[in-house]
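Box 3.1. Reading complex inputs
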Amino acid sequence: MIAPGAQAPDFTLPDQDGNEVSLSDYAGRKLILAFYPLDFSPVCTDQLSIYQEVLGEIEERGGAIAGVSVDSAFCHAAFREKLGLTIPLLADFHPKGAVCDAYGAFLPDYGTSNRSLVLIGEDGAVAWSYAAPTPMEIPGANLIFDALDSGA
Amino acid sequence: MTEPASLGSAPPPEPAGDDHVRGAGPEALVYLDLGCPRCAGTWAEVAFLPLRICVRHFPLAAKRPRSPALHAATEAAALQSEDGFWGLWDSLLADRSHVDDPHLWERVERLGLDLDRFESDRRSPAVAARVRRDFVSGIRAGVTGTPSAFTASGPVEGDLAAALAALAEGR
């Protein structure tokens, strides 16, 4: 998993609407990337719903959050609609998992990302990262706020 | 401008004040979403164990759009009586269908509550804040799904109903 201090690897990925989203779009803001294995899998359903509930509080602290998985933009669109999410979901579909891999989140045996969070500071450096020890564990939203509030 | 309230890690607060607590025995704190099928199943098994159970609201609106309204409904009932709260709470978990407004009103009337007052209270900012307060305490305690529970030993892992049954039996 990418460590604090490292420069966050640049990326350009389509979001659920097919619009290109780059890391540079978030310059000057704190960005949380929520890497997760797959849309529609049971654990992921709860994970993104949790973050959605506290989106206001994340934005209050000058943060933005985006989900990243290897699913296609079309899948992301359906998943967002099903869950009523407004959090953008980025499709690390082609090349598969390349951005997940750049952040140290890709699991080659599974062909998906792990379940992890990366906080990128306004300066574009990784301020904090956390990978769930097992695929069934959801990183709590409290961890995001610990990182945001610590002045990262 | 006031600092935004913290959502950083913190253990769940001890039951106090207007928390909803029922029963006698070892303490258990349970976070539930009234729209969650797992919560309904777990509640059926644990609700009447010999435990002192404190329940807290953990609606996930994105996942279960009707949940916030149901949690607000129970707090509106609570404003009239604590028995009203538990009556509606138990009723909603026992039957997760029939939760649209007309059926909600029917449940409220069957509990002997004032329907006009209920209707006015359930959309009030105070009730929304009361539900949100529980939700935030859950977030801070690391709750990431429902049902979730905490006992004197800390967060309950694995089969929640089994763990609470063991606690009730003093195992």
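In summary: The two ends of chain A are 18 Å apart (CA to CA).
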